[in-house]
Amino acid sequence: MKYHTAYTKNVAQATGIFTSLLQRSPAVPGFGLIDGRPGLGKTFATIKLLNSVDNGVYIRAVALDSAATFLDRLLKELSVRERPRAKMARFEKVLEALYDQPRVLFIDEADYYMDKPELLETLRDIHDMTGIAIILVGMDKIARKISKLPQLDSRISQRYEFQPADLEDMQIMVKELFEHGITVGDSLLRKVINETHGNYRLGAIALENIERKAKVDGIKHIDVAEYGTDHAVL
């Protein structure tokens, strides 16, 4: 299988809200939220969006982050060598860098920040004072947590919840990712969906197994009959 992110419906929707954030009026707040259950391709979609712009900055949140460590990590990503010890001085350096060169900030695994008020207020201040777009990416419970934080929730102007893969998504993945012109019948794709419950991560593993069998057997089209009715796809 080719190593890139297929343009599934989730990716299309994430691209749409991202474009809307970049093209929004200055009067519209610039926070975006992408959420959904694990394994639905949020991180892959985020990286695809990050690579689509020249000014993107990616931070993968970690449990040990504080406002101070976040500012330090952000300064590093902004290529700012001077990193003062005082939090306020770090914050001012971040603002200075973003005033000089506005960026788009992607924060993956943002769930880790939901119980860290100082860090969230720091993010809100960065957004309010620079006007940059900030995309929060998290698990399916993050939206509920944000709803309890009105000052943050009111600043989210674009949001999308990733959905499990359906037959059309699987067809897109086969078309865009399979090599050597190998095709897969819909019955086998439905078997993949049923066994993986629409989980993209597991679905990709299943599709790779199917493609490998087709290559070994020397066939260009594979369906349930060729794969084996008693064989699991994982």
TrEMBL record:
Q: A Pfam family in this protein? A: AAA_22
Superkingdom classification of source:
Bacteria
GO molecular function terms noted in the UniProt entry: ATP hydrolysis activity
Q: What InterPro entries does the record tag this protein with?
A: AAA_22, ExeA_AAA_ATPase_DNA-bind, P-loop_NTPase
Q: Where is the ORC1/DEAH AAA+ ATPase domain?
A: 30-144
Name the UniProt record assigns to this protein: ORC1/DEAH AAA+ ATPase domain-containing protein
Give the signal peptide as a residue range, or say none if absent. none
